Amino acid sequence: MPGQVLRRGDLSAAGQVAALAARHAEDSDAHRTLSPEVIEELIRVGFCRHFVPQRWGGVAGTFTELLAATATVGAGCTSAAWCASLAAGAGRLGAFLPEDGQRELWGDGPDALVVAGLTPTGTASEVPGGWLVRGEWRYVSGVESSDWAFVCGPGPESGQGPMFFLVPRADYRVLDTWFPTGMRGTGSNTVVVDGAFVPRHRAFLRESMWRGHSVGSTARCHTVPLRVASGLLFAAPALGAARGAIAAWSARLGGTRDPASGDRAAGHRDLAWAAGMADAAGLLLQRAAQVADQPSVTPLEAVRNPMDCALAVEQLVNAVQRLFRAAGTSGQFAGEPLQRFWRDVHFLASHAALRLGTASEPYGRQLAQTARGKAGGPDEAGGG
């Protein structure tokens, strides 16, 4: 499908997606998947091609651009923003395939919708020319509309480490297993592969992705170590959710459902507090995106970025929580955008990549080493 590139600094296209996604948000929540119209628009404006190498017609874009566009979409629908961000991230995995694999994936154009099962739960048996892959991968967002799926499994050779295998849509089926309380519209169902043959040119070692060892591209979006950038893909939709909640609260203050006159000042205080928290979180994420886009990072920056993403999401949860509690009973009815953003941001914050406790320890350790004048080298998949 022809794609309109996400131009640097031009968010008008993302704003169009946000408006469409907002109109469909209640239906997406009810049906546990995005509407075809929203998926088509996400592809049209360029999310799938954002990290595709330029030689295949892609953008090889920046994380700063993706953060801004994803947050814009998220203000309309968190689930749509999540699927957009992860589609860009899954497409980025293609840059680690051998050249023939990239040609098979993008030879007909850069807008293939790729999804990914990141946990190495499957198996791969080596056969002449490739592998037979089988297994189940849970929580694969946007899979119903996908063209390809990267699935992860243990490498068939001892000590080799996990591998990613690229499987075409005809070789996997989808189980309807997605019944969550939040992020319902992501359609994060289960991928099942029943002994599909994957040729060697459609596989790569997971370690290559961790360390940024891409094939045929020197663009920073392909050479940045994974830990420096991955948190942004999951945190950006939360920034949009908080902005959407703030917009919903502002409408309540200025619309027909104003709080009682005695509560108006309190409503303004709640709004200011939430907006300030969201702005602070946005600045943290913007810094993290700028670091990911740098030609190289220091060991301290490498471990600070995951912490910044987790801390930002913690602040965004608090911002939405403040507004939701202040809304009272009327804000909790089905169909109210505020309760949907509240469910989404709490659910999103539970993702493993956004756990503050896990992310803060390496950063604190590196800070202590730096303060003692003993700055250590990069951790695994750290600076680079």
Structure description:
It is built from twelve helices and eight strands. By secondary structure, the protein is α+β, with helices and mostly antiparallel strands. The chain has two domains: 12-211, Beta Barrel (Butyryl-CoA Dehydrogenase, subunit A, domain 2), CATH 2.40.110.10; 224-371, Up-down Bundle (Butyryl-CoA Dehydrogenase, subunit A, domain 3). The strands form two sheets. Strands 1-4-5-8 form a four-stranded mixed beta sheet. It has a four-stranded antiparallel beta sheet with strand order 2-3-7-6, with no helix packed on it. The model is unreliable at 1-11, 258-262 and 378-382 (pLDDT under 50).
What's the CATH architecture name of the largest domain? Beta Barrel
Give the C-alpha Rg.
21 Å
Mean pLDDT: 91
- Order of strands across the widest beta sheet? 1-4-5-8
Shape: globular
Give the CATH level 1 class of the largest domain.
Mainly Beta
Please work out how many helical segments DSSP would assign: 12
Q: Provide the β-strand percentage band.
A: 5-15%
Task: Write the H/E string, N to C.
Answer: HHHHHEEEEEEEEHHHHHHH
Class based on secondary structure composition and strand pairing? alpha+beta
Low-confidence parts, pLDDT < 50 over ≥5 residues?
1-11, 258-262, 378-382
Calculate the terminal CA-CA distance, rounded to whole Å. 35 Å
Q: Main sheet, how many strands, which sense, barrel?
A: 4 strands, mixed
CATH structural fold name of the largest domain: Butyryl-CoA Dehydrogenase, subunit A, domain 2
Integer tally of domains: 2
CATH H-tier superfamily of the largest domain: Butyryl-CoA Dehydrogenase, subunit A, domain 2
Total DSSP E strands: 8
Helix content: 40-55%
